[in-house]
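Hi all, posting the design record for the shared folder.

TITLE: backbone redesign
STEP: 1 of 1
STRUCTURE INPUT:
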């Protein structure tokens, strides 16, 4: 399989006057099933790029591994869309645990987790990073400039791992959560520190996205789109700064505004 996220497909375009036979660039949708120690664990639908990093980040997000070294081996059959993972420490897989609704409380306040596993793996982010207003705009601009596949298809999401001053890695996928898992996998493989990093994101900040960011231990997520109410509640609870609608020299800060400052850092 070639390492692309889009293919040319035939289509008929109505141009306002007539029907015209043309080709369009369309995002590839690829099913991938993960087996852990010969037991089926999950099937995801993704873009067929950076599959190893995607699986590593997904397993870490699900609490199956904590470091890259927890994985003994990984074999990817791209033709069949299958991944076989062997863990150094064998675990029993309770699928109900990974899909069962969780409602708990913390100091009298209910945390709005959907699943038991999120309650187990999401942690309060203690990052002290701060960025300026101009850095918010610049990081979003850098991500959008490199989002070639989105420009061609309109059918994918992009997520970028950044420092305050530069974009380090950008990942593309039809699933916004998959793009974040790919970044998580890159961090784990490269043993990259994450408490001084920022996520620049193309899509809506849902509760699922916010929890992925929390599990990565990153304190700021920037988006050109909107957050959901549950994402904002979780962000306030988990110590994450959510900045949305970064467009036309404006943005909205929905949580932990202390990380967004005016002027130069240190002034």
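Okay, here is what came back for every position:
SEQUENCE:
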């Amino acid at each position: 399989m070639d390492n692309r996220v889009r293919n040319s497909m035939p289509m008929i375009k109505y141009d306002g006057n007539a029907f015209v036979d043309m080709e369009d660039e369309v995002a590839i949708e690829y099913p991938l099933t993960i087996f852990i120690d010969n037991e089926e664990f999950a099937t995801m639908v993704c873009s067929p790029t950076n599959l190893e990093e995607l699986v590593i980040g997904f397993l870490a997000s699900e609490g199956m591994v904590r470091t890259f070294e927890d994985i003994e081996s990984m074999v990817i059959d791209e033709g069949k869309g299958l991944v076989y993972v062997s863990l150094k420490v064998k675990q029993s897989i309770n699928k109900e645990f990974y899909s069962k609704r969780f409602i708990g409380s913390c100091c009298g306040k209910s945390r709005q987790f959907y699943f038991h596993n999120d309650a187990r793996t999401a942690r309060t982010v203690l990052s002290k990073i701060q960025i300026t207003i101009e850095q918010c705009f610049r990081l979003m601009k850098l991500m959008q400039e490199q989002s070639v596949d989105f420009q061609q298809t309109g059918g994918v999401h992009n997520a970028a791992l950044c420092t305050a001053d530069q974009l380090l890695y950008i990942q593309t996928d039809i699933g916004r959560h998959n793009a974040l898992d790919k970044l998580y996998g890159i961090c784990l493989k490269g043993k990259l520190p994450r408490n001084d990093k920022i996520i620049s994101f193309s899509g809506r900040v849902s509760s699922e996205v916010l929890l992925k960011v929390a599990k990565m231990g990153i304190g700021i997520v920037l988006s050109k789109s909107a957050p959901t109410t549950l994402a904002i509640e979780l962000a306030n609870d988990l110590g994450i700064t959510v900045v949305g609608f970064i467009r036309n020299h404006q943005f909205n800060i929905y949580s932990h505004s202390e990380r967004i400052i005016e002027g130069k850092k240190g002034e």
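COMMENT: Residues 131-261 form a domain with the Cytidine Deaminase; domain 2 fold (CATH 3.40.140.10).
Let me know if anyone wants the other runs.
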